Amino acid sequence: MDRSPADHPEDPAMPDPLGPTPTDPGPTPAEIAALRDAIAQARALADAGGPGIVAAVLAGDRVLAMRPNEVKDRTDPSRHAEIAAMAAAAEVLAQVDLTGATLVSTLQPCEMCLGAMRWAGISRVVFAARQEAVHPKYFQFGGLTIADFHAAADKGFAHLGGVLEDEVIDLYADGRV
Ligand SMILES: [Zn+2]
Predict the structure, then answer these.
(1) Ligand 1 center to residue 16 CA distance, Å?
(2) Can the keyword Lipoprotein be found in this entry's annotation (predicted)?
């Protein structure tokens, strides 16, 4: 994205060329805090031999739900962390519409989870490890990037990847979890 100050000549309050832009705001403190919690959980699970991928759903600054990958625990190939977190958040709200919520994940959501995110109405995803930085095993349509999904969805969602990536990349770089 272009964060050139020239994009905001009318707004002297935004002189920082690395600062968030109004159309693509960077991760909020609450999103970063949730991601940091998710990373800590993922690392603890991975160290215990479990599924080291954790996702959360936030409504504003409130964490509605945070769940790990439950594929093996639930014997369900679709029970990725993002799916589990969205299901739990929907249960908390007693509704399937999660419009306005944010999905946070330690790893870039796969194609299935991006689809589920859209079905839930979520239009913002913040994640740590990016597809290009991790083992290919985490994606079934490796030829498609999140930018491709973004374009295919008519840019209907915002994606912020690489947030705190350095703190978790060791789990996914060689596909060990
Ligand atoms: Zn997934």
Answers:
(1) 35
(2) no
The amino acid present at 15, given as its one-letter code, is P
Q: Which of 10, 31, 70, 82 is catalytic?
A: 82
List C-alpha distances in Å: 28 to 25, 33, 61, 117.
8, 9, 8, 19
CA of 42 to the centre of ligand 1 (A): 15
Residue ranges in 81-159 assigned as alpha helix (H): 81-93, 111-119, 146-152
pLDDT of residue 25: 81
Could you tell me which CATH number the domain at 29-171 has?
3.40.140.10
User: In this structure, are strands 158-160 and 124-129 parallel, antiparallel, or unpaired?
Assistant: parallel
The domain locations on the chain are: 29-171
- Is 165 marked active-site? no
Residues whose CB falls within 8 Å of the CB of residue 90, separated by 6 or more in sequence, listed in order:
96, 98, 120
Average pLDDT value for residue range 36-64: 97
Cα gap 145→159, rounded to integer Å = 12
- Residue 142: CA count within 13 A, CB half-sphere: 7
